[in-house]
Amino acid sequence: MAASENPKKVLVLHGPNLNLLGLREPEHYGKDTLHGINERLTQQAKQAELELDTFQSNSEAELITKVQSLANSDIGFIILNPAAFTHTSVALRDALAAVKIPFIEVHLSNIYARESFRHHSYFSDIAVGIISGLGAESYALALTYATHQLRD
């Protein structure tokens, strides 16, 4: 069976400022670093016999280009933390809608317990689901779900 017929790859897509995890507002985002989160996810994926790729950018254009590059790839699932682009990026939303790869929207903090401008997401209605407010564990839970989906 060709890879595109049975994809076993997951992309974790991190938006702006997540490269500052561990330093930036630990009361909201925790003390985990992005590197640490990615390392744990890589180990979790390996145990599940999945390939995992990660990508972080502070540039909306780079994130859109990355998503568009997936159109004919063997990525079967995306875990997306759009960060601040959650509330602003129709263009990133359109790219995700175009490639039609299922994704979970992830947030380290509970966006609904914060400032009112953070309550709106341009992604939630096209996401398979949303995990918000559980810190770095949000990513692990999303990967667990993706694992089950890719096995079914």
CATH architecture verdict: 3-Layer(aba) Sandwich
The Rg value, from CA coordinates, equals 15 Å
CATH C-level: Alpha Beta
Strands of the biggest beta sheet: in what spatial order? 2-1-3-4-5
Q: What is the average per-residue confidence, as pLDDT, rounded to a whole number?
A: 88
User: Major beta sheet, specifics?
Assistant: 5 strands, parallel
Q: Please bin the fraction of helical residues.
A: 25-40%
Uncertain stretches of 5 or more adjacent residues: none
The counted number of beta strands is 5
Annotated CATH topology? Rossmann fold
- First-residue to last-residue Cα separation: 15 Å
Q: State the fourth-level CATH superfamily.
A: Dehydroquinase, class II
Could you say which structural class the secondary elements and strand pairing correspond to?
Answer: alpha/beta
Instruction: Label the overall shape.
Output: globular
Q: Structurally, how many domains make up the residues? A: 1
The fraction of residues assigned to DSSP E strands is 15-25%
What's the total helix number? 5
Quick synopsis:
The chain is α/β, with parallel strands linked by helices. The protein contains five helices and five strands.
Task: Explain how this protein is built.
The protein is an alpha/beta fold. It has one domain: Rossmann fold, CATH 3.40.50. Helix content is 34%, strand content 18%. Helix 4 links the parallel strand 3 and strand 4. Helix 2 runs parallel beside helix 5 and helix 3 packs parallel to helix 4. The mean pLDDT is 88.
